Each structure stands twice: as structure tokens, then as C-alpha cells.
What we know:
About 45% of the residues lie in helices and about 25% in strands.
Amino acid sequence: MINILIVEDDPKLNQAVCTYLNDSGFRAKGCLGAKEAYDELYNNMYELIISDIMMPEIDGFEFAQTIKKVNRTIPILFMSAKDDLPSKQKGFQLGIDDYMVKPIELDELILRVRALLRRANIELERKIAVGNLTLDADGMSAEIDGEEVSLTTREFNIIYKLLSYPKKTFSRAQLMDEFWGVESDTGLRAVDVYVTKLRDKLSACDGFQIVTVRGLGYKAVLR
Length: 223
């Protein structure tokens, strides 16, 4: 059974979320603050964390940053009354995986939880199958309809990243820092060149398209 930790200082909302998740086939545990959550994470294994931004001891941003330093693969979903773009940007820059604005719909929460767990499972299996394309991270190989497609290591890493988080926009700077390194002197336009090559090499793929987000970067959209 999937274990989910809820970190929310509103007792009623905490209980409501835990009850709904438990009734939906998960095992949810509620904590009212960061200290209690740290203790719980130290003593037990969790596959996903749902956290509020506002906490009694520290803010959710600091909490998320600490968790990601210890375990960068565990998905974190923020629930917050803050609906401003800077708060969302800060959260995603720290490594959170999803963001919901209160008041939340519990049915939507379940959908997002299941999507995050699917992505986490992709990271563990290290394989992605989208339409007629299969990517194998261990073998660094790509196949379309069973036929191998020649991709460079950097090309493979970029498309694997985009398809691991469909609909999520990655800026050119994010992709550059991750796949070229922060010390690289290469300009951001190099990312555009690689995306153009990927679109050409993967033009026969029927399950997704790489979409340009004007002024920002790229995302993979499933068909």
C-alpha cells in the first residue's frame, strides 16, 4: 500500500485529506507541523508528501528544500491559499512536483496524487513508453515501433526529462543547467538547436509533441 504523509496545520483539513486518501486505497498519516513530519519521515517510509506552505515552525518552502536534499526523488505536492505566481515559481524552483490552491477539490487531489505516483514509478523503472516510442534510461536507447533511433546522450536526456513530466514547462535555463552544467559557456540557444534535432528524429512518434512555450522553454504534450 502507498504511504502518504500530510503536513497541514489545520486539523480539520488534515483529517479530511487523510480520510479521503484512506478511503481511496492509500495509507495516509497526518502531521500538524514540520517537526512532527521530520520525526515521521525519519522513522517510516513514505512515497509522497502533501504539504501546506504555511507551518508553525518553518515555512513549507524550507521544509520542501530540506526534504529534497535528503531524498530528491520523493514527490511533494503543495496545498496553499497562496495563488500568486511568485509563490508557485519558488516552490517549483525548490523541486516540488505539483501545486494546488485552496480550497482544494478532494477528487482532483486524488487525480494529482495518482499522476505523481505514476511519474515516481517511471523514475524507478527508468523506462518510458509513449505511443510508439520507448525510452530505456539504463540502456540509453530509444525505439519507434521497435526500430532503434540514434540519439546522442544529451538528446536522450532532454526528451526523457520532458516525457517524465508531461505538460510541465522547463525553461531553457533549467535544461541548460541540468544537461550542460552551470559552468558551461554555451548559450541558451543551444537548447533550441537540440529540440529542433529531437523534433526531426522523433517526427514519426504518434504519442506526443514537443511544444514551445514562448519566452520560456519547452514541454511535452501527450496526444
